[in-house]
Amino acid sequence: MRNKLIRYSPWLVHFNTGACNGCDIEVLAAITPLFDPERMGVKLAPNPRHGDILIVTGAVTKKAGERLKRLYDQMPSPKAVVAVGACAISGGVFAGSYPLVSGADKVIPVDVYVPGCPPRPEAIIDGILKAIKKLEEGGGSD
Amino acid sequence: MVKYVEVPVGPQHPALHEPIMLRVRLDGEVVEGVDIVTGYNHRGVEKLGEKNSWVRDIYIFSRICGICNAVHAQTYTQGVEKLMGVEPPLRAKYIRTIVMELERIHSHMLINAVMAEAIGFDTLFMLIMRDRERVMHLKEIVTGQRVHADIHMIGGVKRDLRPETAEKVLRVLDYIEARLRYYKKVFEEDYTIRKRLEGVGKISKQEALKHSLVGPVLRASGVPSDVRVDDPYSAYDELKPNIVVRHEGDSLARMLLRWDEALESVRLIRDAIKNMPKGNPVPKAIKRAAGKGEVFSRVEAPRGELIYHIVSTGGPKPYRVKVRTPSFNNIVNSGFAYIGERLADVPVILTSFDPCISCTERVLVVDEKRGLRKWVPFMALSRGEIRVT
């Protein structure tokens, strides 16, 4: 039952945890008319409490890391996390810098990794699809 | 009784997809003061620059900002080239200029789209974003990547511009120009947009100069200042860009000025492709060490004047690279512009400054220990309008 509910309209929560904007404008490109996932009901949620999939971009900084944890806790279960870009996966070119946690999975559980600097919008949509599949199969993180 | 209501705007949301927090103090609906809270995006880029080699730093500094990455790479490489005594071929300079101008077009389109979203005009947002994809496509066929161009190398560019590609660029530019003219007309004539933007966040010429604002924000307040003209770099001394100036100083003027600048960029790219000299822009060998010295390098980014100060003590790495981005001036110094406006106008004013938080952050925190007051006007600090945490 609960999986069926989110099946038709997974809403996204996008959080920039210290990205260079490269991934953010690609996430923006992925949800705008050229690809138009909104016709399938995939759109940005106005509030983290309405979201199903959290998209994390950026090399998680210590200050943003606290916010990321809070944002994740605010989202209702079932939920999935997509880490977009090299920075969100491991810190990317910034890995090892002093203000960084280097990687979203150090703060919250990540389900799908989308590599690239930045990944193409097609790859981001593919990552979202994989996250939806994971949620349908009863996976994802509670 | 509590005198003020404090409303936090952000860090996740305020119309933008970037983490900044405005702590707005309200008296009823009217804004009494704004604390700008940043630091969510500090990545320690300047320190990383000291640890890595001259060549690797091109990639690190261009990743300060994904929207204006080519201008960051340009400022850094032109400084390093001066330091190393390398002169890039003229064709390479033209190719760099084309990439930077494409970037300016897509950056200005993006912020105008975000502005449309901020005032609730979602259709316009979607339309602009659709046409912006054409610009991204041009960037991809010219540089090989949609966002991070990474075309700059010390002493040249990564790849040449083929004649077929140039033809395609010219063809798509015709379409883009028509669309830019259309959107400019929409911003000029649409009743909703005028209602929300006209007279909002007005900055006078004196205020703009006093708070050392830069770029479109400064030019929309009637000050003709553009590094491309004042201190030409790359191919700009031959292309001769025109400075666009407006005198109203409100949010609408800032947005319209960006459309005019994008149209000017279209002309510059056309001219650059037509007048491009022949030759090989790709360097055969890259110089990897620099002598002692320091350089000061500046470039007109889409958001304003971008400054790099590079110090070398000789060897394979820079000793210090200091970056001052335009958003730093425009965001941290702009606390005064919100006062007396309504709460609903706060996102509009913030958007009209074209904030690039990823640019701002790095400078901000690094500078904190070294006397940030130099950048924040003392008057604003003493009035308690801006408290940087």
Describe this structure in words.
The complex is a heterodimer of chains A (142) and B (389). With 142 residues, chain A is of the alpha/beta class. Chain A has a single domain, classed as Rossmann fold, CATH 3.40.50. Chain A contains 5 helices and 5 strands. Chain A is globular. The two termini of chain A are 15 Å apart. The mean pLDDT of chain A is 85. Chain B has a domain at 45-274: Cytochrome-c3 Hydrogenase, chain B (Orthogonal Bundle). In chain B, a hairpin with a 2-residue loop joins strand 2 and strand 3. Chain B is built from 16 helices and 8 strands. With 389 residues, chain B is an alpha+beta fold. In chain B, 54% of the residues are buried. Chain B has a 3-stranded antiparallel β-sheet with strand order 1-2-3, with no helix packed on it. A 3-stranded antiparallel β-sheet of chain B has the order 6-7-8. Chain B has a two-stranded antiparallel ribbon with strand order 4-5. In chain B, helix 4 packs antiparallel against helix 12 and helix 5 packs antiparallel against helix 6 (163-189). The chains are: A alpha/beta (142), B alpha+beta (389). Chain A binds chain B through residues 13-29, 32-34, 48, 58-59, 61, 63-64, 67, 71, 92-94, 97-100, 117-118, 120, and chain B through 11-12, 17-19, 39-45, 47-48, 59-60, 63-67, 69, 110, 125-127, 129-130, 132-133, 136, 146-148, 356-358, 361, 365.
